[in-house]
Amino acid sequence: MASLFFINSQINSIHYSIHVMNQRLEQKRNDLQRLNTASTQLSNCKSEFINQKDLCLKPELMANSWHGQLANNFDTYRQSELQVSYLTLPNEQLANTISQLEDKISEIRAEIESLQSGIASHNSRLHSLYDQRREELSRSE
Q: Which distant-in-sequence residues (6+ apart) come within 8 Å of 130 by Cβ?
């Protein structure tokens, strides 16, 4: 009878462990979905930034609005410094952030696989305990 009590105790413990693991699995799946959405949105922002790079050069300077050496210096500044600085946002900062998100996504995928494997292992152990309990009950009859 003590053996039956021990088996039932293990069954309850494994049920609880599976329940906790399923909750963590659901949370990780939600996290993964949110990170995938964020990654997609950031990739879209990066593309939009790159597509809008010419905004740094606007408005174009016309001979009748501003001309001479100062106008040439200003245009050179916009092309060589302002636009280059602008492009560091998508090419460096957003690219680094997207890379960090992709790393986190890979990490969460690995955690999900680990949880799924753990749940499968616990389910296998649970079935084994059910078999042991049936044997123990048939012996006590």
A: 11
As separate numbers, helices (DSSP H) first and strands (DSSP E) second, the chain gives 4, 0
Residues 1 and 31: their CA atoms lie apart, in Å, by: 45
Answering whether pTM is above 0.90, one says no
- Cα 43 to the center of its chain, rounded Å: 14
Closest Cα to residue 66, out of 74, 55, 57?
74
CA angle 35/39/45 to nearest 5° reads 145
pLDDT tens-digit series, residues 26-74: 999 999 999 999 999 999 999 998 998 888 777 776 766 777 788 788 8
Would you list the domain boundaries of the chain?
2-140
Tokens of 14: 């494994």
Identify the CA nearest to 40 among candidates 91, 113, 89, 94: 94
